[in-house]
Amino acid sequence: MSTHTSWPLRSGADYIASLRGRDLDVYLLGERVDEPVDHPIIRPSINAVAETYDLAAREPELATAISSLTGERVNRFLHIAHSAQDLVEQNHMQRKLGQLTGTCFQRCVGMDALNALYSVTYEIDQAHATPYHARLREFIALVQSRNCVIGGAMTDPKGDRSKAPHQQTDPDLFLRVVARTDEGVVIRGAKAHQTGCINSHYLIVMPTMRLGPEDRDYAIIGALPVEAPGITYIYGRQSCDTRSLEPSALDRGNPQYAGQEALVIFDDVFIPWERVFMHGEVEFASMLVERFTCYHRRSYVCKTGVGDVLIGAAATVAEYNGVAKASHIRDKLVEMTHLNETIYGTGIASSHQAKPTLSGAYLNDDMLANVCKHHVTKLPYELGRLAQDLAGGLVATLPSAADLESDAVGALLEKFLKTRDDVDVRDRWKILRLIENMTLGRNAVGYLTESMHGAGSPQAQRIQIARGMQLELKQQLAKRLAQIEEP
């Protein structure tokens, strides 16, 4: 952590200040970034996380909760859900933040990791008399008191997908323990597609899949500071990201906010025992993955907040074009709303149907969580298609802001891109760029592709749905009404 940080963090400005001076090894566009906070490509993603702090200050009933550990009011992203209503309120907060930022605000993985670990460590302790749950509670109380951002690191590079971790030619393709001392463990490997990792204060590393007895070195869960020695971050490219390096904000679409992903490489990184929450208990790896994905798949209601912004942008461009009252335009907006609320309905229903685990923490309904996420792998793409339909071809052929502002052709663009007399060409330009940003550009990363693959690609949800579809029960129901006698 920055040595200049004053805990607890109370505002977005406090949060941004806490990221300074950490001397992280961050690489972007082939160069080491001296200060990520000030890099124009990285800063919009930091702004999105900062909004989670400012929302908590403005609307504490929405974005904070009373901690079951300390009795103090804490940021909801750090709160352990002890009721179905707690999970519902998470969803309310997530949709609101999607509306406010129009992008990924990068804290849901950490929130869902803490909640999953709370119950899993409790059950490991029950089986093995380990100290993991007490350690986790102490860690959660610490980060709650400081108001930290937690990044969850689950996805390994995986190498040859047909082989288990211990069978890989290169053992580093799954993160593993390579040494143990009296003080702690040393880990080596990488985590891919890590949302908000550079913008976090702590990372929690976790197994990515079911493990067997020979994979014990890979059954490691631990928390470590983002600036721990031996960690390298290689920043992921995003479509149109270098527009943030251009002098005009007019072509950025969403100048203030963006998401963040990076490849995180761990080169013999130390984790002290007091921050280790699983160490070799391979039989609990699948429980962790299933509970984390259960939480995280219904967390994708955040995309409905982003969808609200896209619907608003589509309605605005239709209005600017003078066609807002056309019946087919209204019908497409109705369809966009229907699709968006379908995602939200399944996600929040999953939270409403939560049940307590042995630890006392509540876990949402697994079937509906997977239905929610499966919708998210499809419906945002249709929302994006409809938005592009309403925007017209100019969303993909608009010249650059430099042309609009040039003496040579600026006046021509002002003339030929004019629609209604009361609509400024620059306002139409901005809304077109926002639609481009969300469906083709930087924030399409989080709204489309990450919606496809985050928390498991579509087949992962279909597997879970198949496991829970209760075909035998449904056959019995049908046979009873059809008066079919069982042999």
From TrEMBL:
Chain ranges of the HpaB/PvcC/4-BUDH N-terminal domain: 12-278
Major enzyme class: lyase
Keyword Isomerase: yes
UniProt xrefs under InterPro entries: Acyl-CoA_Oxase/DH_mid-dom_sf (IPR046373), AcylCo_DH-like_C (IPR036250), AcylCoA_DH/oxidase_NM_dom_sf (IPR009100), HpaB/PvcC/4-BUDH (IPR004925), HpaB/PvcC/4-BUDH_C (IPR024719), HpaB/PvcC/4-BUDH_N (IPR024674)
Domain HpaB/PvcC/4-BUDH C-terminal: 286-482
GO molecular function: 4-hydroxybutanoyl-CoA dehydratase activity; isomerase activity; oxidoreductase activity, acting on the CH-CH group of donors
A Pfam family per the record: HpaB_N
Keyword tags: FAD, Flavoprotein, Isomerase, Lyase, Oxidoreductase
EC number(s) on file: 4.2.1.120
Binding site for FAD: 195
PANTHER family registered for this protein in UniProt: 4-HYDROXYPHENYLACETATE 3-MONOOXYGENASE-RELATED
Protein name as it appears in the record: 4-hydroxybutyryl-CoA dehydratase/vinylacetyl-CoA-Delta-isomerase
Native organism taxonomy: Bacteria, Pseudomonadati, Myxococcota, Polyangia, Nannocystales
Gene from which the chain derives: abfD
